[in-house]
Amino acid sequence: MTESRELSRKQFLVGGAVLSAGLTASVTVSASASLAGCSGSDSSSGARSGGAGQASTKRARVTAAKPPSPTVPRDSPNPYLRGNFAPVHSELNTPNLLVRGTIPKELRGRLLRNGPNPIVAPNPAKYHWFLGDGMVHGIELGEGKASYRNRWVRTDQALKSLHEPARLGQPAEVSPAGSAANTSLVAHAGKILALYEVALPTEISTDLETLGRYDMHGALKTVMTAHPKIDPVSGEMLCFGANFLAPPYVAFHTIDRHGKLTRTVDIDIPRPVMMHDFAVTQHHVVFMDLPVVYDLNLFTDHPFPATWKPSAGARLGVLARSGSEKVRWIDIPPCYVFHVANAFERGNTIVMDVVRYSKMFDRDRYGVAEGLGSLHRWTIDLDRGSVADEILDDRGQEFPRIDPRRAGLEHRFSYAVATSESSRGEIGFGGVIKHDHQTKSTTMHQLAASQSAGEAVFVPANATAGQDEGWVLTVVYDAATDGSELLILDAADIAKAPVATVRLPQRVPFGFHGIWVPEA
Questions:
Q1: How confident is the model at residue 178 (pLDDT cuts 50, 70, 90)?
Q2: Cis peptide bond upstream of 248, omega within 30
Q3: How big is the CA angle at 252 (ends 246 and 257), to the nearest 5 degrees?
Q4: pLDDT at residue 505 in the model
């Protein structure tokens, strides 16, 4: 059983990564208890109990068997398996978290965060940060109180690793390797989907129960990007699927506000590239054909089969949302972009804010530590067929976000997490940056040297609030305490002390993306 699973993991790319071979240990959680809470601490994972006020809290307990061999130590030689990149091993239900300050009464809902959290201990020589089984961390806020719950997304592979029964009655997976469901989340048409970009979405509930693969009632026949865009005016969700095995390598989809897939357009590009994100405006979508190219021959000695190939060139492809199926391609200098903050139209130009890297997957064995990304503004002139490049902020940063009500529309503010690079060439995270694109100024929420912020999520105070009238939510890890907290920042004055801080019952490993799901 183990050999066949490892063979398939070596052969196929999943979600912008490769599922790794060489698993050495397993964790068993009983299926009947898998959605119950767990105790507050796990010494092998570095998890911490919830702190003050939790001794009297009653919690159900999951029986978690110890692995037959030790889990990866926190000082693993693989930088993405040590420190706060290392997984946690407990699924918790913890109400009545310790709160310092006051949670705004308008914050009623859940912050959901997704990221890799291997269930079994991978071979450090073959593991990549993009590989681990998806774990969603949920922090529920309301009535001035906070609670925490976390669950692995029960993909087919996760069910096997947890020794839980296979899920029956799901649509067939369109990817031959399956999904880790570890990258991001989207809430649309009454559904919450955990995303991994070369697989079908996985539907979960607000309580983080896995409901199974979702193919839009049989209409979605391709994989789906981890970065769909929701039009705040029409309610449509726009997305694409990037296939790595055979052309057409990209397919663009439009899903109406009710969740019905209404349009699919095949996009012809010459090679399978790592197209992680794209941009949407009121009338256009923009694809990025950039020179990080998949090469499955790299499996033999790389944890991730992608390579920097500047000779492939770089270009942006503009497609009209009105129904035209012809993409207009415009060349740009070679570079790489993981994430787009937003895009909008000014006359016959498209303005597109991105975190741009000069290269990616070149010399670093893990690909992602190839220098720091900085915030750039690309202005696409549709009359001239040219792209102007302006540096908005040259400091290291990632995970750009905006007010979701401005998606595809001109935005004044954006938020990002400061990044750094250690002397050993490893990435690190710092405080939260707020960009004011009207005044061309930036403000920083500084953290202690031991602290690292996760992606910052803006939540408006109400439906008609201004663009920075609300709060910025970020989960912060503190190496000094080996624990995590939720910081609630006043978006209008992000530099000042948090409005509230919520102590979490265990650390939240560095992950990727999250969303705010307001109370229904």
A1: confident
A2: yes
A3: 145
A4: 98
